Amino acid sequence: MISSGVRRINFERIIERVLFACTAVSILVTIGIILVLVVETVRFFGEVSPFDFLFGTVWTPLFLNKEFGVLPLVGGTILVSVVAMSVALPAGLLTAVYLSEYAPPFVRRVVKPVLEILAGVPTVVYGYFALLFVTPLLQGMIPGLAGFNALSPGLVMGIMILPMVSSLSEDALHSVPRGLREAAFALGATKAETTIRVVVPAAFSGISAASILAIARSIGETMIVTIAAGQQARLTVNPLVPIETMTAYIVQVSLGDTPAGTIEYRTIFAVGMLLFVGTFGLNLVSNWLRERLREEYT
């Protein structure tokens, strides 16, 4: 008979192999995605100059007079993200400070999960909320606001990513050692002074990482901008007019009207590669900040 020790060892080996297989699958899938993007992007740049693609200001690949300057898509993506972060960063940080430093424990236990419910709402719901509720509401306050614009989806996107900023920032603030707060109080600092001058600086690395992750999330958002921002690629800083983002363009071409293998179809891989590089870079910066800006007392 096989002893219990041998069975335990065999079971551990099976678990180890299953975990390794899961890890390998995730790595292989990632490699596969990158290879597809690289291959199709190289084919695209075989017909279009990388300089024209990166620095051109006209994007009309689906028109008769084709232009492949991606800056209008990049500008639209950045514009919506700026609007979103102008909502999510201050509101999320203030919410995190309240939950960590001022809210009673039972309020924190209730409010934090409620906020995180916002992250579970499907983005298509946010998109139609922006188009059918927020946009008409803003049109009543802002004359000349177009039916499709960057302002409405940006504001709604800020609400959507607010839980990410508040939750991660609150975790960073909550992890600051209690002794730092007590030392500040012992020196005569008020609650507000302790929060602003001691706790927030001590948690700055976590707050910075949360902010950058939220920016990456806003850049990669698809359905809200596809539904409510419009599909007019223009290089503008005016949030009141229709724009098109990189993700919205990928959705537009992926609907099936563009034949596969054409230069128009390959544009989505070039745009996708640019989007991948941008979000990957932001994640690297987030990890670097988490390590480099960590205070000695955390």
Tags for this entry?
single chain; 298 residues; mainly alpha; MetI-like fold; 2 domains
Could you give a short description of this structure?
It is built from twelve helices and no strands.
Description of the structure:
- This protein has 298 residues and is mainly α.
- 73% of the residues lie in helices and 0% in strands.
- The protein has helices spanning 4-45, 50-55, 71-102, 105-117, 123-139, 151-174, 178-186, 191-202, 204-220, 223-228, 246-254, 263-292.
- α5 packs across α6 and α9 runs antiparallel to α12 (263-292).
- It starts with a helix and ends in a 6-residue tail after the last helix.
- The model has no long low-confidence stretch (mean pLDDT 86).
Kindly, what is the distance between the CA atoms of the first and last residues, rounded to a whole number of angstroms? 53 Å
Please, what is the CATH homologous superfamily of the largest domain?
MetI-like
Q: So, CATH architecture of the largest domain? A: Orthogonal Bundle
- Residues in helix, %: over 70%
How large, in whole angstroms, is the Cα Rg? 24 Å
Distinct helical segment count: 12
Q: Regions with pLDDT < 50 over 5+ consecutive residues?
A: none
| Proportion of beta-strand residues | under 5%
CATH-assigned fold name of the largest domain: MetI-like fold
Q: Given this structure, which CATH class of the largest domain is correct?
A: Mainly Alpha
Mean pLDDT: 86
Assembly form of the protein: single chain
The helix-strand sequence is HHHHHHHHHHHH
